Amino acid sequence: CPPDPCKALEDSEIRAYLSEMPTPDLIVVLDVPIDLAQTRMRKRSQGMPESFGDQSAKRLRRIQRLLDSQVELFEELELEYITTRNDSDVAESCEQIASRIERLKSG
Predict the structure, then answer these.
(1) For residues 1, 16, 8 and 62, what is the CA-based torsion angle, rounded to 10 degrees?
(2) Among 8, 96, 101, 102, which one is least packed by beta carbons within 10 Å?
(3) How sure is the predictor about 83, in pLDDT bands with cuts at 50, 70 and 90?
């Protein structure tokens, strides 16, 4: 059975995981509005994941809350991150990410 993407990890579990890995130079968070995520999943050849069932909106809201709490943790731990909304042109998101990477490289 695949792991449940909505299973909330305790803060202590996340901190333990982060303490065992090298500090990333940059964390990229792609934020997609729930209605757009649902539309994209329905358009996929596989459709909506079976594990979501008829609870897709509820599960996606829960995933969004988990993402929000992880971003708060990134801030608390002073990790470098960028959040880009993935609801428009992909090229625009790529430009935002590339620009942030260039700023990091230049110091």
Answers:
(1) -120
(2) 102
(3) confident
What is the rounded CA–CA span in Å between residue 39 and residue 46? 13
Q: Tell me, what's the pLDDT at 2?
A: 45
Least confident interval from 31-40, 47-56, 86-95: 47-56
Beta strands in 1-107 (DSSP E): 27-31, 81-85
Distance CA 1, CA 51 (A): 10
Cα distance between residue 105 and residue 107, in whole Å: 5
CA–CA dist 23, 11 (Å, integer): 17
DSSP string, 79-100: --EEEEE-SS-HHHHHHHHHHH
Task: Give the model's confidence band at 4: pLDDT under 50 very low, under 70 low, under 90 confident, else very high.
Answer: low
59 residue type, one letter: R
